[in-house]
Amino acid sequence: MFAAERRQLILEMVRANGAVSLRELARVVQTSEVTVRRDVRALEAEGLLDRRHGGAVLPGGFTRESGFPQKSHLATAEKTAIADLAAGFVEEGEAIVVGAGTTTQELARRLARVPGLTVVTNSLLVAQALAHANRVEVVMTGGTLRGSNYALVGSGAEQSLQGLRVSKAFLSGSGLTAERGLSTSNMLSASVDRALVQAAAEVVVLADHSKLGTDTMFQTVPTDVITRLVTDEPPAHDDRCATELQALADQGVQIAVAGASGGATGPSGASGGESVPARQQRRDVPLPGPRRQVPGAAAGLRSAAALSDQNAGAERARVADLRRR
Questions:
Q1: Exposure winner among 66, 84, 110, 173, fewest CB in 10 A?
Q2: In angstroms, how far apart are the furthest CA atoms of the chain?
């Protein structure tokens, strides 16, 4: 495929979906991410699209929201890996809320196997994924159906969440930055997501790497409210994506990264083939700077304190001995 044909196809995909990851573009045009990145730079220079961390978006700074048919075909391998990993953070018998989105839909399919679980959701897709799970109770909010993402929104949805208290909220969105946190392109969806967050003791955000550094119109979850981010392995050469993850970690967000190539990487580095149990796939990125806990540091401080006490005792004994003389 010639460069002009590739770039036209890339442009059509971005216009149709609003935002597309480099991995997805490379898969569709059947070339490397390096070549796609060069094409995206050329299209950006012409003002036809904007580059974002690991992807391309419509020009203008804020991305518009794609419909469900488009979203369902984007970053499918990444969403699968993220959902596999996120399911490991759910315990038997918990009560949780799950927001709308294609990534949370993937998570719901895995939650069907968790016994004694209660799931509160405003998403028809999440409820459908759990409809035949005998050991999972599904509670739906009220509200008005928003057809583009099959979610219940509006005052009815928000009022039904008042007084609710659960252990965790699992949410997705259109963009995530360290500066503003999670955001979305629709005001009604943002308002319901904020109500979901207020009901939870912990907030877990599910976002593939293409959403990192992307900012959209309506903030849903400020960074300081996010407990954990579950994301996929960013490209090795994507320094901006790594910088965004570092900035999130600096603000206290725990980072869990699923393995590359669409499979979560377990302790032995296994990916693909036989699945690794979700609780073994977790790879938390330690917090940097003063928040980082150094193994053995506490023991070292205790040893130093004990040594100091011993030295002080010896000095007191020597002084007493001199006085007796």
A1: 110
A2: 99
